[in-house]
Amino acid sequence: MTHDRLITTALLVLFPIAFLAAGNSFHESLLIYTAINAIAAIGLCLIFGLAGQISLAQAAFVGIGAYATTLATNRLHLDSTLAIVAGGLVAMACGWLVSRPLSRLHDHYLAMGTLAFGIIAYILFANLSSLTGGLDPGVTIARFKFVGNELPRSNDLFWVCWAFLVIAALIGSNVTRSKVGRSLRAMKMSEFAAAGVGIDCVRTKALVFSLGAMLAGIAGGLYANFARSFNASSFGFSYSIDVLVMVIVGSLQRISGAIVGALIVTVLPLLLDRAEDYKTLAFGVLMVLVVKFAPQGLVDGLTQIASRLRLQITALRRRPAQAR
After folding, report:
1. For position 2, what pLDDT does the model report?
2. pTM, to two decimals
3. What was the pLDDT predicted at 319?
4. What's the rounded Cα separation, in Å, for the pair 186 and 43?
5. For domain 2-277, is the CATH number 1.10.3470?
């Protein structure tokens, strides 16, 4: 886990450097979307990677956070940052409520249960036009204000996204190293054995679902403030799959992997923009290669390769000394 903290710190430091070095607003926007996706991916990393609970409802929690933030900003006139936090808390409450009936499901039954919740949430987003604007025309949120002052440029929201990404990484890292993290890893190995040593599995599941939903809700609030105008189509099933791919490609157990996965999944479609028909093929090939050669994710795979190279170099250095 020490390597994970070092890699995560390096990535968090590189984000603002890359933003300042970006040559145009398009690249700046790309970094903003990467940071937003990374926050949602860290939430799923806790649920799926750490606890082993398959969730296909992350898009629903992102949508809840986005709409709650919009309503808090437009109707309650909360400060934009407070509205984003409020949206995260609403998503967290929804995550806790959903986890109670779903916590007794396992494996593919849990995946189907979370999928059903995601579909129901999408249907509500699309049909509650008085609150969400539905699919057409959607909703528009007021401009982001920090302490009552509007940002000079919309892309300056990057610094807010980066600050929330740092907070999300700290939460994920602390949960991973805490007693709760050890309980979640025990549950992932064997839920029955974990229950046998006194771990309250239902309560622990509810906690990790709530944390994952909260981070997704914060990502939704940031997305709402950056996109400004959006509709329910942004929170369909495909986005849940995108977040799942981010975690699988980056790392199932490392916070740094969620950030790397978010970067890859956000940037890759743009690199293949001129080859629209091959985007799905590229993602499929990438997934197959990762599952085949790095089943724990790219970050874990590269870390293992680096460790092996270091051991081989150390062994080669010792051989001449032993020969003498």
Report:
1. 64
2. 0.90
3. 67
4. 19
5. yes
